[in-house]
Amino acid sequence: MQVEQANFKTGDNVFTLPVLIPDIKSIRAFAQTLHAHGEAWSGMFEGWSATYTPEDRTHRPSNSRMTFMPAEFFVGESAIWHVAISWEDGRDAPPVELENRRGIGGESHVVYLDNFMMEANTIRHKAN
Asked: pTM above 0.85?
């Protein structure tokens, strides 16, 4: 885990509080374990709310060209920090990972994971 400073704005006031962010490798390992099990799950992961939804080939996302609902893992609080891992190309394909640090510096990035290394190309985006 790492300690980061999260910024919260309420009206004209900005508050800075320390938050503990789980290690990305432990997040990936936990998500892969849930994905291998293949059943819906909701609970806490290292102090953060988390969910896993398995792939659903009987439904498709609205306003999308996708032909099925991909398996997804989500951990965090979207206004502060979160990681979303999605198996967009199917259950057995490598997942796509999004880390959003909206409340911690405003940066987000997408990582296309490799099945063997669980590391790969990163695309960074600084929020306005």
From this structure: no
